[in-house]
């Protein structure tokens, strides 16, 4: 029996998914924090979004990305986060969609998914960069520089890092980290989510033959 | 942790007492104008108007703090890069050595900067004057699902908490010899062992938290009645009407002037 | 009315049949239990015996939240849990879990706001909600904590906040799944005191616990679970003085244990005691003989 879109959404956004979303936002924030503490020249700030997408589907992933940026925009640090909410959301959407097609069952497939996410977000972030940060010039560099500066890096990191290479590596690594984290989650937790059994464990929803109930003592 | 501190500044001004949705309407109106208007002087008028509102709400200090930290690092480099390197710029205004400031680039930079100023100032005003909880209640009264409110507030509360947890784990690992120097590969390898405890700890509480929410009626289809009252007065409705009409008029004016030129 | 559990067997969806050959992965098997209004039933058993699963049966989280396979029927005040959503039962029955911190919603910055969430969700007018919150805070003994940040409280305090939060829903039945297992002795006492008070006010309570000493004093009836099946049900006196208690995985109350050992030496001649007071009297008689 085919489910309606509304029904699928309701199942995806079950109570456990709703409880997970703030958590995944937290993972995004902490992911970035640990990255900076270790002085790794990347962002690693969409790991939580990807996890949300893989476990509970593309729309939960998308909402988690948006939620991250909307909430951050209410804090002192990050009002400009709002401009990039869609970008974060897209990563969740793509991760979820690819996961539904089995792309997060093997580590190297997950890595590829990360890169695909990066490619897809380009047309989404480009208008924002143009509108807010003065445009795309012939060299991708100035647009990327402005973009990088807007996401909180100082001018030297921005100038030194180069566009797609760094961004791509960042998202590939993020997808990999998300993959290994999901791998480490207990089965019981995974079952709480609508998509996890399929996306992570490759299990079909068939009723296995149950052993009989033991007799009364 | 300062990073996740709310921007909200409590106060008693006229603006503070408005319904949050009225303020959001204003910000949306300004955003549309900021994108649609192309005259620098018009954009700057909006910017100045926002500054007046900020003064009225007595949040100028916090505004300046945010402005300097957030906007200047964007505006200054953009100004420099665009006035020097914008493609298609021909008219040289001033040259020094191999570099030259060109007119077209300069105008482009100034236009974008005015856009940014007008939109961001409205936006900062909003986050300084609205507490997310009140916004959620106001939205709830207008039909937005209370689950959205839950998401916003739970996330806001969780971030400082999970940040603390991460800091603790970082300290613990540091005392066990985790090195912050060393090769990049080595540092990347330390990433997962640092993230894992934070994530695992959080995920383990999911099941119980979800059940606790269920038990408190989270999924009840009943309309919520919040203890805290967020008023939506006729004054608010009138203001919203004024804002929307004002925005439409200004936009029309801008387009008219552009077509005329 | 009360609770009727008729021949219930339940298996979690993640159960691994190979891991547990004797039970085939069934967390509960052929449970029959009937709980009267106003009764305090204690559920004892080793970890893994099915206590938590039994608790989750009562408010419909099993089977709705956990899925899995369930046979049999659970009726709460006349309503079949399989036929209604857990949301429909929130004013009938509520559950308090082990970990105090995990029960905080995280969307409230003060204890008052946290306790307010339940009544707000039920859509009561403001005055009604305020009255409920006030009463719940009093019943749980936390009125002095109203303005505190729930995240900053001690375990015992948080657990009482959790209790207040569900009390504000005014359930007729309260289920507590090892509420004191993560608390220090002071916190434990605080929680048992609240439970005692609620029971004396007429609330039906199901309490899954390890702390037999407290159970001996609090419970009207005791049920023992072992490997998913009920071994015996009876008054605390009947159950906690049984010689096969340890075989069922339960240690008797300390004072009962003392008396049992004296009995095996021929010294103790009376009924086995459950409380310190009874033990003292018994010892007095023994020593004065």
Helix content of chain B: over 70%
Identify the overall geometry of chain C: globular
Shape of chain B: flat
* Overall residue-averaged pLDDT value of chain C: 89
| Percentage beta strand of chain B | under 5%
Low-confidence runs of chain C: none
Task: Give an overview in words.
The complex is a heterotrimer of chains A (217), B (261) and C (289). Chain A is an all-alpha fold and 217 residues long. Chain A has eleven helices and no strands. The longest helix of chain A has 27 residues, at 107-133. Chain A starts with a helix and ends in a 16-residue tail after the last helix. Chain B is mainly α and 261 residues long. Chain B folds into two domains: 2-130 and 231-260, no CATH class; 138-215, no CATH class. Chain B contains nine helices and two strands. Chain B has a two-stranded antiparallel sheet. In chain B, strand 1 (92-96) and strand 2 form a beta hairpin. The radius of gyration of chain B is 24 Å and the shape is flat. Chain B starts with 19 loop residues before the first helix and ends with a helix. In chain B, 38% of the residues are buried. The mean pLDDT of chain B is 85. Chain C is an alpha/beta fold and 289 residues long. Chain C has a domain at 253-289. Chain C is 36% helix and 20% strand. Chain C is built from ten helices and ten strands. Chain C has a six-stranded mixed beta sheet, with helices on both faces. In chain C, helix 3 packs across helix 4 (126-139) and helix 3 runs parallel beside helix 5 (155-167). The termini of chain C are far apart. In chain C, 49% of the residues are buried. The model of chain C has no long low-confidence stretch (mean pLDDT 89). Chains in contact: A-B, A-C, B-C. The interface between A and B is large, with 59 and 70 residues.
